[in-house]
Structures are given as C-alpha cells and as structure tokens.
Design a protein that fits this description.
The complex is a heterodimer. By secondary structure, chain A is mostly helical. Helices cover 72% and strands 0% of the residues of chain A. Chain B is an all-alpha fold. Chain B is 76% helix and 0% strand. Classes of the chains: A mainly alpha, B mainly alpha.
Chain lengths: 369, 310
C-alpha cells in the first residue's frame, strides 16, 4: 500500500501575514464610498471628499496591516501614506494658484488694448462707468511691462559681468585663499538677504549719494542686482567647476595664457550652463515686488527713461491695483487689471524657466561621442 | 630674433593675465563691498531714528516701543510658516528621493521648483482673494470650539485676513526651499548604509529612520533655518494678505504686523523721519536674517560632505 503523497503546502514564515496585492485598491474604493457618504450627510464638496477619503484610506490600510502583518509593517504603511500625502498636499497650492490666476486673469488679458495702453488718464470715473454700465475696462499694463523689462535688463547688465567674473575668480584664481573663502561665505549669506532690505539698501545708497527721495528705475535695478548677483555667482561657479581640467591643461600645453584659456576654452565649454543659470536668475528677480516698491515708486504713465522719474513695473502694478483700486467704490475693474497683469507675469516667469531648461539642453557642449 | 619675439608676446600676454585676474578679483571684492555697503548705508540712514526724541517716532513712545510689536509679529508669522512647512517639505523631499519611481523623480522635483518660481506678489494676491475667503469658515469653527486657547480666541475675522492666513501663504513659499535642500541631502545618504539596513530586514520606513534621517539631520536643520530666513523677510504675501493692526495673541483675528510688510506699506508715501524709522526697521530685519542665515551656512560648512546642500 503506497501512501499517496499529497504535498502539504505550508506558508513560509517569511511570507506569512502579508496583505494581498489588491489590498490598497480595495481600501481606496471603500474609503471613497465611505467618504462620499459622510460628506453627503454634512454637505458635499470635492475638497472635503478628498480629505476625508484620504484619512479613511490611511486609517483603513494601516489598521488592516496592523491586524494582519504586525506593527512594523503597519508603521511602514503609515509612513508611506504620510509621505505620499505630503506630496499631494504640496501640489494643492500650486494647482490652486495657477487656476486662480488663469480664471481671474483671462478676462483682463482679452480686454482690448490691455497690453498696448498705459494707465495714464484712467481715473475712477471710467472704472465706475465700466462697473455700472458694463462698458469695457479701460487702461492697460504697457507702462508696467515696459518698466519691468527695462529694470530687469539693466539689472542683468550689472549682475552678469560682476557675477561671472566673481565665479571665474573663485574657480580659477581663488584656490581656497582666505578672500575666496570669505567671498563664498558672503555670497551664500547674500542669497538670504530679504528682498525688501536690498531695496532699502539701494534707496538709502541713492538718498545719500544723489539726494533724498531719489526714485528711478536705475535705483530699482541696483536693488535687483543685489538679489541677482549671488544667484549668478552660485550657478556660474558650479558650471565652471565641472569643466574638465584636461581642457585647461591641453590649452596651457599649447602655450596659451591663462586669461585666454579662460575666455576661449573654459567659458565657452560652460556657456550653456551659465546662460541657463542667468535665465533662472532673471526669472527670480522679474517677479520681485518689494525692492521696486521702495526704489522706483509707481507711475501710471509711460516712462522710457530708467535714469529719471518714477517707473511702474508689473509686480508693483498688481500690488497697487489690489491695495489701492483706481476707483475705491468699484474695485472690480482694478482687480481685473491686476489679475491680467498677474497672468502676464506668471507666463513670463514660466517662459524664462522653460527657456533656461531649453538653453541648457540645446547648447550643452558636444561630447563628440 | 625668435627669443625676442617670444619675450615680446610673453610680455603682452602677461599684461592681459594681470588685467583679467585683477578684474576677477575686483568683482569678488565688489560683492564684499556691496554687503558691507548694505550694512553701512542702512546704519547711516537709520541713526536719526535711534537718536530722535521719543515723541517724534510714530506712536510717540520711541523707536523700540514702535519696533518690538512688529518684530514679534514677524516671528509669529515665520514660526507658523515653519511649523506647517517643515513636516510637509521633509515628506515631499523623502517622496522625491526615496518613494517616487526613479524615472518620475526629477520631473516631480521640477514641479516643486515651480512653486518657488511663482512671484511672491501672486502668492499675496492668491492669499488675499482666494485662501482668506475659503479659510474663514474654518476660523469660525476654531473660534467656537477651540476658543479657550488664547491663540484661537474669537471672534474670528470675517474676511479671513489674519496672521494665520499669512503664515499659511508663507509656508507655501518656504516649502520649495526646504524641500530642495533636504532632497539633495537625502540623495547623498551613503547607499551602503541604506542597503545594510534593508539587508537586515528593515522596512523602508525603518531604513529611512535608521540611515537617512540621522545622516541628514544637520542638513535638515540648516534647510529649515534658510526657510526661516526667507519667511522672516518675505514682504508681499504678508502685505497683501494681512489686515494689520496692534499686536494680538489671537491668530484668527485681524491684527499683528511684520517688519517687511510695515516697510512696504508705508515707505512709498513716507517722508522725513518716517523714512529713517522704516530704514531702521529694515536694519533690524537685516540683522535678524543675517544671523539666521550665517548660523545655517555655518552648520552646512561644518559638514562639508553635504556639498550639494549649498
């Protein structure tokens, strides 16, 4: 009589007590249904549904895991839920800000001549008429756009040579000398200067040198340079550091002077990274409000000259239109202009960010392999 | 003849070398001079406010009676921002460095960097127009149910334009800073430590707790301090969101003010001694943020292995 050998399948201790693969999906489905039910009792809205379902999902999954798998696995699941949850929470404001700007900004943008007229002569009377009779909102952002572009351009013209030369000094000449270490440290410290303090510095400097109450686009450009230089130094320094030493040595071996090596070999090799860093720095300062507010004042008419007179810029335009509407009794037209300007500004910043990535990719040095 | 021409060319090249290295050094020194100048000119313009008779300063009780409520307000707003932003950004950084699929990680990092790219005035406008309105029912609830706590004392502001709203907006603005620095440090954790922990049977969370977080602690501290520096100096979010007033303990009533917002709101129309007072306020903000940033940078430089963290 031969005993029939039926293999007895024992669960291995290593795989014992595991949740089935489909567990998260089941819990998610239950959580969504329960969440909808709870929200239906107290008044439904999508945001609350998401929050309640997420909490139910985490509690359900962790609880089930604790019952089946033990406390260590449950803690791991809890940590995963919290980490993923915090990422989703961080996305909420980004989506909300972009959505708010889009929804509120598009009516401003499509107003006729919004981009080609200034606020010169636009008074509360027109805004009241627009709000009461529905006539189109007058006034635009041409002066602010012009001011932003001119101030940012001047700040770039000041910052790039200073920043790039400093980076060259730190990488090529510094060699851990005390002064190079001091520059590195203070450049780092400078990145943390509050933007309004940079503005106050430029204002105080020009008050002392030119005369009290000096407010022009150039003062604002100096303030923005204080914020921009450290960013340019940091990014250019990183880029110059990764230029392979072999290139320098090959150039020296051919008898080329150090300065010509830097100008003809090192900087051209790193130029894509440097250009992309400069673009990111521009994107950072183009949206700065506080330094321009205290240095350039706010104008309502077109001012082409950065060296004299108050100048408008997009961020200060948004700020003043929201805080001091042109017509205090009917702030809606002002808000519409402010959101339109905000949309233009955000598009500018996003384009600069995208441009920086494109520059870095397109002009990256050819490896030849 | 050859030698002379060689010497000649060498002479010309040497001049070029000198000029170029001199220019580079001058640019570096200019940066030091600018930082020194920031301090110097702020001090020069601030001195009249310190020396002026007490009754000439706004409020009539002297400069320090004027400045301390807004210093406290600044700290309150910054602390709210950090309390919210620190755990979330460490979570986000962990998600990008250790949880997200490798192929998605850099794209997700870019999405978080977009948060840093949005100009502060737009955050301010968003906070004032959207967040304040949406969050005010929550303040009513807090006032009704948690009102026994001094910080949630009612009646809640009907517009939602309170220091707590400003702090939430600030937390959104410092989140990308803390996240990107922490992420860099998390990625530098020695792979061997992580693999050793996993090989001993640790779950992913235990691996992070045992190898990643202890390694990254100084980096996280300095990242949080850099975020603190940003939150202290941020102007527009507070100026647009907060309806300011006297110092109050309750976070859900209108009131309180921060240094940066005080300057931005008053400087454009200020004249005479008021300008000096505001510049003196700016000097105090500068000193506070400089101190915070220097400590943060010092912590980073003490741990040179976090080369990516600066």
């Amino acid at each position: 009589m031969t005993p029939t050998l039926t293999p007895v399948r024992k669960r291995s201790a290593l795989t014992k007590g595991q949740l089935p693969k489909f567990a998260p999906y089941v819990v998610l489905a239950i959580a969504l249904v329960l969440g909808a039910a709870i929200l239906a009792l107290i008044g439904f809205n999508a945001f609350g549904w998401g929050i309640v379902s997420a909490i139910l999902f985490a509690a359900g999954l962790v609880g089930w895991s604790a019952a089946v798998e033990g406390s260590r696995k449950a803690k791991d699941k809890l940590a995963t839920c919290l980490v993923v949850g915090s990422f989703l929470v961080a996305l909420l404001p980004l989506i909300s800000v972009i959505w708010t700007v889009m929804v509120n900004g598009i009516p401003g943008i499509i107003t006729p001549r919004f981009l080609t007229t200034s606020m010169n002569g636009v008074t509360g009377v027109f805004d009241n008429r627009a709000a009461e009779e529905g006539s189109p909102v007058l006034g635009g952002i041409y002066h602010a756009l012009l001011g932003t572009l001119e101030i940012t351009l001047l700040a770039t013209v000041i910052s790039v040579p200073v920043g790039l030369l400093t980076a060259v000094y730190l990488v090529e000449y510094g060699h851990d000398r005390p002064i190079a270490r001091a520059i590195t440290f203070f450049v780092d410290v400078m990145t943390g200067i509050p933007s309004i303090v940079a503005g106050l510095f430029a204002a105080a400097f020009f008050f002392a040198v030119v005369g009290p109450g000096t407010k022009t686009g150039a003062v604002a450009a100096v303030a923005l340079s204080v914020l921009m230089i450290p960013v340019v130094v940091r990014s250019s320094e990183e880029m110059l550091k990764i230029v392979p030493n072999e290139l320098r040595e090959a150039s020296y071996a051919l008898g080329v002077r150090k300065w010509r090596t830097i100008l003809k070999v090192v900087i051209p090799t790193a130029i894509s990274g440097i250009a992309s860093g400069v673009t990111l720095a521009i994107a950072r300062v183009i949206g700065e409000t506080a330094p321009i507010l205290v240095t350039a004042g706010f104008a309502t008419s077109i001012n082409n000259n950065v060296f004299s007179g108050w100048m408008a810029s997009l961020p200060t335009f948004i700020y003043t239109q929201i805080l001091n509407p042109t017509s205090p009794s009917n702030p809606d037209p002002s808000n519409q202009r402010a959101w339109g300007a905000a949309l233009v500004l955000i598009v500018l910043v996003m384009l600069l960010n995208l441009g920086a990535r494109l520059i870095a990719r397109v002009f990256a040095p050819k490896t030849g392999r | 003849m050859t030698t002379t021409s060689l010497t000649k060319s060498r002479g010309a090249g040497r001049a070029g070398d000198k000029v170029f290295s001199g220019a580079a050094l001058a640019a570096g020194c200019l940066i030091l001079a600018v930082l020194f100048g920031v301090a110097l000119f702020l001090v020069i313009q601030a001195i009249p406010a310190f020396t002026a008779p007490a009754e000439d300063i706004q409020g009539g009780k002297g400069f320090f009676a004027y400045i301390w409520p807004i210093v406290v307000g600044t700290l309150i707003a910054a602390i709210i921002a950090l309390v919210i932003a620190t755990p979330v950004s460490i979570g986000v950084a962990l998600f990008i460095s250790h949880y997200a699929p490798r192929s998605l990680a850099s794209g997700l990092g870019y999405v978080i960097d977009l948060l840093a790219a949005i100009p502060s005035v737009i955050y301010g406008a968003w906070g004032a127009a959207f967040l304040a309105r949406e969050i005010s029912p929550a303040y009513d609830w807090l006032a009704d149910n948690m009102g026994w706590l001094p910080i949630f004392q009612g009646p809640a502001s009907a517009t939602g334009k309170t220091i707590l709203t400003a702090g939430i907006v600030l937390s959104v603005m410092v989140l990308p800073i803390i996240t990107s620095l922490s992420r860099e440090i998390f990625l530098q954790t020695p792979k061997l430590h992580e693999e050793a922990a996993l090989a001993l049977g640790a779950t992913r969370w235990e691996m992070i707790k045992m190898s990643v977080l202890p390694f990254a602690r100084p980096g996280i501290i300095s990242a949080v301090m850099l975020g603190l520096g940003r939150a202290l100096g941020e102007t527009m979010a507070v100026a647009l969101v907060l309806s300011s007033g006297a110092l109050t303990a309750s976070l859900i009533q209108s009131g309180n003010q921060t240094i940066a917002a005080e300057i931005a709101l008053n400087f454009p129309e200020a004249g005479g001694l008021k300008v000096n007072t505001l510049i003196a306020a700016g000097l105090i903000l500068f000193v506070i943020t400089l101190g915070v940033n220097m400590v943060a940078r010092w912590i980073i430089s003490r741990h040179k292995e976090f080369s990516g963290a600066n």
